[in-house]
Amino acid sequence: MSEAPAGQSPPKLAERPMSPYVSVWRWHLTMAVSIMHRVTGVALYGAALILAGWALALAAGPDAYDRFRLIVGSPLGKLALIGITFSLFYHLANGVRHLVWDFGSGFQLKTADLTAAAVVAFAALATLGVWIVAGATGGLA
Amino acid sequence: MSGYRTALGRVRGLGSAKHGVGGFIAQRVSAAALVLLTLWGVYAALNLTRANYATAVIWMHAPLNAILMALLIAVGVFHMRIGLAEVILDYIERPTTKAALLTLNLFVAWLAGAVGVFSVLKVALSSGVY
């Protein structure tokens, strides 16, 4: 970059809206829900790899499949599955919220707060529901 | 009037070469498909929790199960590739690191997709339990 000639003031920077830096913004619901969308998305990246691993284990034969079930059925495996279940329902519900936004509606602050809370509530309840069903049908055994 | 300008001219001058929105649209179209596919995936997972190897193979022999599972994996890795690329573009500034991570992301996603879909087809098209 060349220096500005003497006697000439540097060009003024336009005042444009800034990205919401975590360090300068007070935490609020819509912000947390937005950040969680990205976090759950990355978690689901791992889930997709586990799903591909499941298919691979099934294709590899009975021994590999039993080993896969042993790992996923372990306490740590179940904990991961619960996290994946929540991530899936969360990312699904908030993804639908984003799709509605793409059509230009739902941006009012009240509406955005309400749908944000609804996303968290849905994800929690759906996760609970799935694991109750899994427990009732012997999936937790 | 824009018809007289080449793609290079558009990039050098004002505006894009009309490709920038591709990833944006692909992400949303695949999201719409995944709304249905993942809900089915949860239902499938609940059905398979108790299944041993033989039961799971028989389950995969049903064409609808095999087709939807292959679609779930394929559309899933397609969607997640774009999503993680967005994360990398947001947080990684160094051009070489950025390019390396974007390439790794592409390789991992396509490898997972190839492994997953091939495995589903192998089980679905195999004759009986071995």
How are the SSEs placed, and which strands pair?
The complex is a heterodimer of chains A (141) and B (130).
Chain A: H1 29-60, H2 62-73, H3 75-102, H4 109-136
Chain B: H1 7-12, H2 22-48, H3 53-61, H4 63-91, H5 95-125
Structural write-up:
The complex is a heterodimer of chains A (141) and B (130). Chain A contains four helices and no strands. Chain A has helices spanning 29-60, 62-73, 75-102, 109-136. The termini of chain A are far apart. The model of chain A has no long low-confidence stretch (mean pLDDT 90). Chain B has helices at 7-12, 22-48, 53-61, 63-91, 95-125. The longest helix of chain B is centred in the last third of the chain and has 31 residues, at 95-125. The chains are: A mainly alpha (141), B mainly alpha (130). At the A-B interface, helix 1, helix 2, helix 3 and helix 4 of A face helix 2, helix 3, helix 4 and helix 5 of B.
How would you describe this structure in keywords?
heterodimer; A: 141 residues; 71% helix; elongated; B: 130 residues; mainly alpha
Summarize the structure.
The complex is a heterodimer of chains A (141) and B (130). Chain A is an all-alpha fold and 141 residues long. Helix content of chain A is 71%, strand content 0%.
What is the succession of H and E elements of chain B? HHHHH
- What is the H/E string of chain A? HHHH
What's the total count of β strands of chain A?
0
| CA distance, first residue to last residue of chain B | 66 Å
**Estimated structural class of chain B:** mainly alpha
Q: Main sheet of chain B?
A: none
